[in-house]
Amino acid sequence: MGGTPVLGYEERTRDCYLVRLARPEGWPGAKPGQFVLIRLGLLGYDPLLRRPFSVYAEDDDSIALLVQRRGGFTARLQGLLRRGGALELDVLGPLGNGFELRESGLHVMVAGGIGIAGLGLLALELSRTQPDSKRVVLLGLPHEGYLGLGADFAGWGCEVRVSTEDGSCGSRGLVTELLGDVGSPALGGAEVYACGPREMLRAVARWAGGAGARAQLCMEEMMCCGLGVCLSCVVPVRCGDGWRWVQSCTEGPVFSAGEIVWEML
Questions:
Q1: I need a labelling partner for 44 at 20 to 30 A (CA). Which of 28, 164, 185, 245 fits?
Q2: CATH number assigned to the domain covering 4-95
Q3: What's the CATH number for 99-220?
Q4: Looking at the predicted structure, is the pLDDT value of residue 1 above 70?
Q5: What is the pTM for the complete model shown?
């Protein structure tokens, strides 16, 4: 796919922004947890490789990406968006395997910072398919200046609880410290989803196992090619009596918490 027009741009925090793109030609619809590869191909090939971004939301006419300015590509993209005018991006996707949505009375979504970008389409899809379920979003942020990252989730019918590193909003501490308050200690049947830093995902997996809840984790591994060629995003998963490396871009980025061999990471 190529030449996908940008329809809108909105700054959510000082370094995070929402980009809305026209629905690419032939777009089959994304599963929550899938991603796209973006390149400024119509403006040259610097950088050469596309960059991966989670599909944050979609509707009949558009898809949305929630982006954090972290390096040259995202800074350049933000600069172009701020200037306004017509802009088209080279979009490839949707790619990867997404979350499996199961029926449940309680869905718990855990995000660390920009990891919330990987949970937006999940929350939106759950609001459409399971509107009577309880949907809780636990969001860990550096400080209150990042509250804009959770702006959409209340509108999608989620209860949003926040922790901040400095205590400027919500609870002070790690987002995983909020997990004990999401429901009954006996959480059999609850569905847990998480996206964020590796140590946060490890803590979520440990908690879910102890609480009897199923957990699916969107691994934020560094993807260079995003197509299963470069082997830069491998994750160790259980295989029979042993384990093997798999590429998170093709066999993930979503994995069952019980699959991950944490001691190898």
A1: 28
A2: 2.40.30.10
A3: 3.40.50.80
A4: no
A5: 0.93
